[in-house]
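Project standup — Tuesday

K.O.: blocked on the structure for the chain from last sprint. Re-posting the sequence here as requested.
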Amino acid sequence: MNVFEIEGWVSLTVVFLLLAIKIFAFVNCLLFPAEAYQAAGKLTKPAWAIILGLGMVISVLVVQMPFFISLAFTIAALVYLVDVRPALSGLRRR
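H.V.: unblocked you, prediction finished:
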């Protein structure tokens, strides 16, 4: 096994890991009611669903996606997971 094969496997692993993060963020965003987004003072549910869904679909369909587009959608998914998801989870139903 040469260095280029190892680099290829590492790159492929990173791509799949980032895709898994995007899929998880998208599915998780669909699980919360739209009212929770308003109550938490965050972007609306349809907006998050479009951003995360678009990032997920483009990551699956476009094989040679430019790095900055992939980075933008990955950052959006991470922002959702680090900022929005905890705010939504912190809300309790009455």
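K.O.: great, moving the ticket to review. The mean pLDDT is 92. Residues 3-31 form the longest helix (29 residues).
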